[in-house]
Every structure is written in structure tokens, then in C-alpha cells.
Design goal:
28% of the residues lie in helices and 30% in strands. The chain has a three-stranded antiparallel beta sheet, covered by helices on one side. By secondary structure, the protein is α+β, with helices and mostly antiparallel strands. One of its GO terms (cellular component) is cytoplasm.
């Protein structure tokens, strides 16, 4: 079993009001030195069987058509190993 992670972020040219709100609040909370914050989404998919090129292509299609709005968002797909103790 493997875990495939899809991270979805707004494209750099798209305004991120949530990220801006967090960035403005940080100095008031004592966290200085943070110049920018971007907010995004993370999806963790547990995949039965091997994660081969065909499986990654299907997950890429899933991310492109369902998980991300590709007009305003970019996404990345990566495989994470699932530790035996975590199963």
C-alpha cells in the first residue's frame, strides 16, 4: 500500500485572501519575519497495490478534473511510503 499526496495551491498570480489574513495576523501573534503566506489544500489518497506509471496517470487525471480548478490552481502529485507501524 502507498499514499499518494496531491497538493493544490492557488496560482501565484491569483489573490489569496485567506493567506493574506493569516500573514497580517502573524505579527500580532508574535511571529515576525514571515513575508508571505499562501493557503492551499492537501489530499492524501491510500492506493491498494503498486503505484506505477498507470496509477499515477489516473491520479493525475483525477487531480486535474476533480481536485483542482486548473484555471486558478496548480497541483503536484507525489508518492509517500506508508510506514508499517502506521498501517
Amino acid at each position: 500500500m502507498a499514499r499518494v499526496v496531491v497538493d493544490v495551491m492557488l496560482k501565484p498570480e491569483i489573490l489569496d485572501p485567506q493567506g493574506q489574513a493569516v500573514q497580517r495576523a502573524l505579527p500580532r501573534l508574535g511571529f515576525d519575519g514571515i513575508s508571505d503566506v499562501r493557503q492551499g489544500k492537501r489530499f492524501e489518497l491510500e492506493v491498494d497495490g503498486p503505484v506505477d506509471e498507470a496509477a499515477l496517470a489516473r491520479i493525475h487525471d483525477l487531480a486535474e478534473s476533480f481536485l483542482a480548478n486548473t484555471v486558478i490552481e496548480d497541483f503536484t502529485v507525489r508518492v509517500e511510503e506508508v510506514a508499517e507501524a502506521a498501517k
